[in-house]
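I hope you will forgive my troubling you with a question about protein structure. The record follows directly beneath this note:
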Amino acid sequence: MLKLAPVLLLLTVYIANGTAQNQKLGVEVLIESLCPDSYKFMRDLSGSFQPLAKYLDLNIIPFGKSYSYINGSSVQFQCQHGPRECRGNKLISCALNRLIEQNSKVQFTYCFMVKYYVKKSDFTQCANEAGINIEDVLSCSVSDEAIQLQLQMETITKNYAITFVPTIVYNKIYSHDLQAKSLVSFKDTVCEILQNKTSGAIPECTS
């Protein structure tokens, strides 16, 4: 069977949908709140996302190598970096569920990880900058809403049988090559995909 290069494989998805020129590139970013590699990727993403935002449909999935289990009558979560990571994943999920604009989600998540993971400090500044109520997010994180959001994140994550966090998926097709490139430079990887699916240059990719 003929194997397609990662970028060519993604192009076949665009063409099959008949919208190669107009369809936004789907991006799923699977992270963990206390993962050092997730933090490094979010730092890169926060600095490169905004100019490319109009070409992308991005979702941040804070779950990673966690898993859910039933304890009596309640749903619990086991996280790779312990209970504090589970709480962080819930907090991110709750915050993202209150945000609409993509760049706000990216910037909040990076800010949160700087405060929660790196500095181990309060993330009020992140909530204020994003325009969301921190008390509302905190209340959500200990509610059934957070559990349901995390179960949704688990379902998405299981689709890809991840072995590394963060995992970056384009148009719901996992590619090891694009994953490796994304960890080096998200902008360069996205620009490679975009420029291969359009007939003209992408201005945001030339600066």
In short: Residues 11-20 have pLDDT under 50 and may be disordered. The chain has one domain: 26-205.
